[in-house]
Automatic annotation (TrEMBL), chains A, B, C, D:
<comment type="similarity">
    <text>Belongs to the PurU family.</text>
</comment>
<dbReference type="InterPro" id="IPR002912">
    <property type="entry name" value="ACT_dom"/>
</dbReference>
<feature type="active site">
    <location>
        <position position="227"/>
    </location>
</feature>
<comment type="function">
    <text>Catalyzes the hydrolysis of 10-formyltetrahydrofolate (formyl-FH4) to formate and tetrahydrofolate (FH4).</text>
</comment>
<dbReference type="InterPro" id="IPR045865">
    <property type="entry name" value="ACT-like_dom_sf"/>
</dbReference>
<dbReference type="Pfam" id="PF01842">
    <property type="entry name" value="ACT"/>
</dbReference>
<dbReference type="InterPro" id="IPR002376">
    <property type="entry name" value="Formyl_transf_N"/>
</dbReference>
<dbReference type="GO" id="GO:0006730">
    <property type="term" value="P:one-carbon metabolic process"/>
</dbReference>
<dbReference type="InterPro" id="IPR036477">
    <property type="entry name" value="Formyl_transf_N_sf"/>
</dbReference>
<keyword id="KW-0658">Purine biosynthesis</keyword>
<comment type="pathway">
    <text>Purine metabolism; IMP biosynthesis via de novo pathway; formate from 10-formyl-5,6,7,8-tetrahydrofolate: step 1/1.</text>
</comment>
<keyword id="KW-0378">Hydrolase</keyword>
<dbReference type="InterPro" id="IPR044074">
    <property type="entry name" value="PurU_ACT"/>
</dbReference>
<dbReference type="GO" id="GO:0006189">
    <property type="term" value="P:'de novo' IMP biosynthetic process"/>
</dbReference>
<dbReference type="InterPro" id="IPR041729">
    <property type="entry name" value="Formyl-FH4-Hydrolase_C"/>
</dbReference>
<dbReference type="GO" id="GO:0008864">
    <property type="term" value="F:formyltetrahydrofolate deformylase activity"/>
</dbReference>
<dbReference type="InterPro" id="IPR004810">
    <property type="entry name" value="PurU"/>
</dbReference>
Amino acid sequence: MTSENYYLTLTCPNKPGIVAAVSTYIFQAGGDIEEAQQFDDKASKRFFMRVSFSCPVDAATLRAGFVEIAKRFELIWNLRAVKDLKRVLIMASKLDHCLVDLLYRWRIGELPMIICGIVSNHPREVYSSIDFFDIPFYHLPVTPENKPEQEAKLLDIIAKEKVDMVILARYMQILSDHLSKELTGRCINVHHSFLPSFKGAKPYHQAHARGIKLIGATAHFVTSDLDEGPIIEQDVTRVTHGDTPDDLVRKGRDLERTVLSRALRYYLHDRVLNNGATSVVFSD
Amino acid sequence: MTSENYYLTLTCPNKPGIVAAVSTYIFQAGGDIEEAQQFDDKASKRFFMRVSFSCPVDAATLRAGFVEIAKRFELIWNLRAVKDLKRVLIMASKLDHCLVDLLYRWRIGELPMIICGIVSNHPREVYSSIDFFDIPFYHLPVTPENKPEQEAKLLDIIAKEKVDMVILARYMQILSDHLSKELTGRCINVHHSFLPSFKGAKPYHQAHARGIKLIGATAHFVTSDLDEGPIIEQDVTRVTHGDTPDDLVRKGRDLERTVLSRALRYYLHDRVLNNGATSVVFSD
Amino acid sequence: MTSENYYLTLTCPNKPGIVAAVSTYIFQAGGDIEEAQQFDDKASKRFFMRVSFSCPVDAATLRAGFVEIAKRFELIWNLRAVKDLKRVLIMASKLDHCLVDLLYRWRIGELPMIICGIVSNHPREVYSSIDFFDIPFYHLPVTPENKPEQEAKLLDIIAKEKVDMVILARYMQILSDHLSKELTGRCINVHHSFLPSFKGAKPYHQAHARGIKLIGATAHFVTSDLDEGPIIEQDVTRVTHGDTPDDLVRKGRDLERTVLSRALRYYLHDRVLNNGATSVVFSD
Amino acid sequence: MTSENYYLTLTCPNKPGIVAAVSTYIFQAGGDIEEAQQFDDKASKRFFMRVSFSCPVDAATLRAGFVEIAKRFELIWNLRAVKDLKRVLIMASKLDHCLVDLLYRWRIGELPMIICGIVSNHPREVYSSIDFFDIPFYHLPVTPENKPEQEAKLLDIIAKEKVDMVILARYMQILSDHLSKELTGRCINVHHSFLPSFKGAKPYHQAHARGIKLIGATAHFVTSDLDEGPIIEQDVTRVTHGDTPDDLVRKGRDLERTVLSRALRYYLHDRVLNNGATSVVFSD
């Protein structure tokens, strides 16, 4: 049998012997560790680990054999064959720079995922110059009145398409509290500021008024606390007094694209582990 | 007569002809413009300009001749011979990394200024390994009880020494409202966060708890609104989930040094102009 | 008459009075300076200036009136109405990330230019998922044998379409010495290294072998000296020992896009002035 | 017995089971892994690992027990108690910014090391404002004539003081071929350019002439190939056409300090492993 590539991620209360148990298990299954990262959180006394390895044993057998170790160390864990791609739903609005960027990176193989659908509150014509290949497009217009129905339709799509992660690619609508809770841990947003500065609306205008010298963008998990979910990735770029709010918007587009695509890439490689209000990101 | 180097800075309501008037005046005085920068603030409709030039005419004569132009364009302006160094007072506390850095840059000529004094709430022995040359040292211990007296002594020193700018080089005391107002526009602080995030105490601990991916430092003018004064310079550095609050403190020291020394350097070259809640910084 | 926006760029031997003459001329024509930058090169004793201004006078009249000043100061100069867009020809090969990026930025108005054509050594089908709108596409396959003819056809297109600037958007062919000379000052290339390191072929592999800690990209004018023309813009990103050459290629794509689009943007706003072996770039 | 902290570093031909063997050994010795990093070099087929752990067993016993594993996997390895500080010799010349910076970081505990001595080709008076505490100072003037003797004296100091690493903190002399070979792997230099660009003398002047948009600094191991040894750390900062060579020197000082201190910090924590012409750097 040929070898399969796997990602194993786990977290547990910290105690000695975890690395030895995990690496010995993989070795005895004939596996070869390609990359391993770990983090020992002194504050929460929790341990986090990600192992990328190749192994001739199939996923089901590996999982079954791992149960005993998982029990012994009280692991929350996940084992995934790299070839079993994550299923992603992209939500966009009129500003399409993040959408176009994600599609491009996906097309050339930089983001290994299955795009289950593209959802927008605008019709397909708005994206007439963009090739969606055979990705289903859903036009879900939203108004204050129809929001519950629109979000119900969205949840239907998510369920029907077995979506692993919803990506808000500058989707300019605020999700309802209900939907935010429903999608906790399953939805990544890009906010156009260096959070926690300038939460909420028009962050570039807020930044301009404050006379900031660097603007930023933040990719984070959505929670029911607006712009307060665990941060995955951030970046900044220099601005000056001479930059108008429009200039900040322009410079910010590059940041938003970069930050969102990096966060998504980390997610797609199982590099992001939840740690309460924060994220452990085993970056490459 | 040999030529003198000057910095001219000005701001006024924007109307055509300012650049022509200023540059013609300098030309007719036999001057040669070395560097000129301008900013036309569309929001406030104000114009800002900095000109560095050499000229065989002395400062008093240049100033006298410029009065007519200043009046015509309603200028707020300043003309300074580069050789007339700014007078700076440095305030420090136990953490001496910014103090040591400023003294080093001053010693090797990177920061052209007269250091009128070093003020600390700790005695001279705390800085036993630092050479203060012949800079006067003032030990002004501060307690909740003696704060008004201590600040009065400080204002005395500032007046007596004709201090142009007070530098809070990680001076860990919060200035009273009275002193902050007194020193508005004459006091630069370095805050150990990327403002406006994490105002107030223990910003590195706040940043760690929030799971931020970049930490920052900010040099800003002190106003009576704590950590809300016009920003002069900011910078950030990358951190990860693995960085403890102590690691952030260590990484932050480099940021604080860099940001404060850059802000001071801009100030010493008359590159910082006030624009309401923000600063115009004509960086080189 | 309503106002027109202009860019004026000039260079001349440095002597006093240029700024005064130029700004007075603009003022007397009823113009209002929006942005002005200058550079006094002590080494070459040359002066460089860029002025962006609005003015109710038409371009022809402005140019005619300026001749006297130009003569007096021995100016090499250019005056352009902002609305008279530059004409750009993009050349691409199989790697289409720069091409797609430039088209996107052009579509959303970030790069104000007329794209006269897209030239490739590959047929149109290779770009099947890209919308070229009504931009003419030229398939000019190149082999060692037909290179002179292919380049002749290219020069025909450049002449016929009155192309101002040719952009090599990761066009993987080396131009002949003849063509390079022909296009000196009229052709911008993006090289996938931090020049002058790693000139020539496979720079990411060279960088990997050398164990470099940051990789870069460089946008520069093409000259007949391969990868030696004046640099317009550069940027870098961090890499580690763990990054394979393929990882460098991936990380480099983002750099190449950013660096080329910034260089082109500077060019389209007349911010790039030639200074012998280097470029003066009046960035915003 | 209380626990001791250790760093274990190793490299070997890659084969499965190393991580399991190492982590099991540490676990069975009662140890707790704090941090572990590994690198599987596909090109050289070698494996690299660094483990930081605490353990109640003493170093000698741990080393003795590890011999069997080391033999089985053909390890080149090192185990060190964190409290056994590295012994470092600093060499400086007139430009003292790196020297001052290293001393400062050492004084406040940022660089855990024993400074065995400071060597300079200038006398002690040149550093009159610097507190050397009780670190021995060696004045070893160098001329073309006395170079062999001077280097012999240096090697004597290195031997007598059991120096682990020589730090060239902007020591402006080129080491002889003989000395370079003698110190291979035991000497870190900071070069004031982004290597491999601008090797040799006056790199800032070379960079200025080439019109570079970012300048850099590089910390690397010294080998007998001038400026060609394995790179440990690099960084860059933005410059413009307006920066003179003197400005580059000023901006470069900050880079040199940062890059050298980071490289030294990595070394002092056993984070730097040799990999032929390159370095594996397990950064934190």
